[in-house]
Design a protein that fits this description.
Layout lengths: L1 E4 L3 E4 L6 E2 L12 E5 L11 E5 L6 E5 L1 H4 L9 H4 L10 E8 L8 E2 L5 E4 L4 E4 L11 E2 H15 L2
Antiparallel strand pairs: 1-2, 3-4, 4-5, 5-6, 6-7, 7-8, 7-9, 8-11, 9-10
Length: 157
């Protein structure tokens, strides 16, 4: 299936690469089909990826694995809300955070409060608001990465 994308032009996607979000995502409830893309030439494993709408080429959100920016990330959600995704386990669970990327990269933020939760086996996903009171909508990623680098540097001394 040929799909037009925002940053990668036209790409050929197999059905196995399409994710279904039955209720869409916040702000785009009418869009239910997505894929995850990354630039193999620029990005390493664990870097920024793109959550690309298959239905609307202009909708591509930068996303990241939460453990890259917050190693202790452990969202608490109502288990009942995850049932439509199928049986989740450590092997098929994929959690991504949406990013806000301003022109000043020191103000880069991740949304810890509303992660994308995906069952890789069923290719179904949803976006949920987590119950963790201390998780922010605009968690400063730049500061967190600088802190982790400083801690690693201190540990290696």
């Amino acid at each position: 299936m040929l799909v037009q994308t925002k940053y990668f032009g036209e790409i050929d996607l197999t059905e196995e690469k399409i994710l279904t979000f039955e209720n869409g995502i916040m702000g785009f409830e009418h869009l239910t089909k997505y894929t995850i893309l990354f630039d193999t030439e620029k990005e390493q494993q664990g870097g920024i990826m793109w959550f690309q709408s298959v239905e609307e080429p202009s909708i591509a959100l930068p996303v990241i694995n939460p453990l890259v920016v917050k190693p202790d990330y452990n969202p608490q959600v109502n288990e009942e809300l995850l049932q439509p995704l199928g049986d989740l386990n450590q092997e098929n669970l994929c959690i991504l955070l949406t990013l806000t990327v301003p022109s000043d990269l020191t103000k880069l933020t991740a949304n810890l409060k509303a992660p994308l939760i995906i069952n890789a086996d069923t290719r179904k996903g949803c976006q949920l608001v987590v119950e963790n009171a201390d998780y922010q909508v605009k968690y400063n990623v730049y500061d967190a990465i600088q802190k982790m680098k400083a801690e690693k540097g201190a540990a290696s001394c």
